[in-house]
């Protein structure tokens, strides 16, 4: 079994979330679904906070958040101490957000990209390791700033 992925969405991202969960499970990841559980209108922030808190509590976990654009989810998730959430809508960004910024939460927009694109981005993101070195110093500077606030 691979690492645990904590996932959440709002109503706009619900169908994409179901698709990504299926793909993650097929790829032998453990999945924690923090909701939402249907397409009824909800506040995305609730789910972004739930995923963020779960990831912040366990550095071995990573998170995936999906809403209509991914913007609201990324903004809210980044309010959780210890979270480095990154919104992506292309493959290069999915790779670089891990390699350079050690993002621990991937955010995507179901109204922006297709399910299959989202899965490609998630695979790239999950397979990419943080490069360390000068990038580790930059990530540490972000975290130091967060801790001083």
Quantity of strands, as a count: 5
CATH level-3 fold name: Ribose 5-phosphate Isomerase B, Chain: A
Distance between the termini: 38 Å
The total of helices stands at 6
Q: Averaging pLDDT over every residue, what do you get? A: 96
Task: Sum up the overall morphology in one term.
Answer: globular
Q: Which CATH C-level class is it?
A: Alpha Beta
Classification by helices and strands: alpha/beta
CATH architecture: 3-Layer(aba) Sandwich
- The strand order across the widest sheet is 2-1-3-5-4
Helix content: 40-55%
What number of structural domains do the residues give? 1
Taken as a percent bin, the fraction of beta residues is: 15-25%
Q: Please state the oligomeric state of the protein chains shown.
A: single chain
Question: How can the largest sheet be summarized?
Answer: 5 strands, parallel
What is the gyration radius calculated from CA atoms? 14 Å
CATH H-level homologous superfamily name? Sugar-phosphate isomerase, RpiB/LacA/LacB
Key structural traits:
alpha/beta; five-stranded parallel beta sheet; 48% helix; 6 helices; 149 residues; Ribose 5-phosphate Isomerase B, Chain: A
Describe it for me?
The protein has 149 residues and is of the alpha/beta class. It has a single domain, classed as Sugar-phosphate isomerase, RpiB/LacA/LacB (Ribose 5-phosphate Isomerase B, Chain: A), CATH 3.40.1400.10. It has helices at residues 14-26, 44-57, 71-77, 91-99, 115-127, 134-148, and strands spanning 4-9, 30-33, 62-67, 85-87, 105-109. Strands 2-1-3-5-4 form a five-stranded parallel β-sheet, with helices on both faces. Strand 4 (85-87), helix 4 (91-99) and strand 5 form a beta-alpha-beta unit. Helix 1 (14-26) packs across helix 5 (115-127), helix 2 (44-57) packs across helix 3 (71-77) and helix 4 (91-99) runs parallel beside helix 5 (115-127). It is globular and about 40 Å long. The mean pLDDT is 96.
């Amino acid at each position: 079994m691979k690492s645990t992925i904590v996932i959440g969405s709002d109503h706009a991202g619900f169908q994409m979330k179901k698709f990504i969960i299926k793909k993650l499970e097929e790829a032998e990841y453990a999945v924690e679904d923090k909701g939402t559980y249907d397409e009824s209108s909800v506040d995305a922030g609730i789910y972004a906070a739930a995923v963020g808190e779960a990831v912040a509590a366990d550095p071995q976990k990573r998170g995936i958040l999906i809403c209509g654009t991914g913007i609201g989810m990324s903004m809210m998730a980044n309010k959780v101490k210890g979270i480095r959430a990154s919104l992506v809508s292309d493959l290069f960004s999915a790779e670089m957000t891990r390699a350079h910024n050690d993002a621990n939460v991937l955010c995507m927009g179901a109204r922006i990209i297709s399910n299959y694109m989202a899965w490609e981005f998630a695979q790239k993101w999950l397979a990419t390791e943080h490069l360390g070195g000068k990038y580790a110093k930059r990530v540490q500077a972000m975290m130091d700033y967060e801790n001083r606030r």
